[in-house]
Amino acid sequence: MSSRRSRITEDEMNELISKLQSLLPESRRRSVGRASASKLLKETCNYIKNLHREVEDLSDRLSGLMDNMDADSAEAEIIRSLLRS
User: Fold this and answer.
1) 60-73: per-residue pLDDT in tens?
2) Which residue, among 60, 56, 24, has the nearest Cα to 42 in the 3D structure?
3) Within a domain: residue 55?
């Protein structure tokens, strides 16, 4: 392996920033606008943290539903099959 690190050009960096910004939902893109890379990275990190919280919340809610559902019911089987997909 080479000890030299490959450098990212300014054009490549701008392209990566544009791609990252395009992955954010429209509402977050508007709040960032043509902002600095650091602001975009902060907004992206906040978005990912919010997604993690949503996943945890939905997972907790699903666990609660499954706990209160008859394990052999048709609804429970549907949910299990969806989770396996």
Assistant:
1) 998 888 888 887 88
2) 24
3) yes
Structure tokens at 37: 């890379």
Is 4 part of any domain?
Answer: no
What is the distance between the alpha carbons of residues 70 and 76, in angstroms, rounded to a whole number? 7
Q: How far apart are the first and last CA of the chain?
A: 40
Number of domains in the chain: 1
Domain range enclosing 23? 10-84
Question: For position 63, what pLDDT does the model report?
Answer: 85
Q: What percent of the chain has pLDDT over 90?
A: 25
Write down the pTM of the prediction: 0.66
Q: 6: which 2 tokens?
A: 């490959």
Q: Which two tokens stand for residue 44?
A: 């992206």
Residue 32 in any domain: the answer is yes
Distance of alpha carbon 72 from alpha carbon 48, whole angstroms: 36
pLDDT at 48: 95
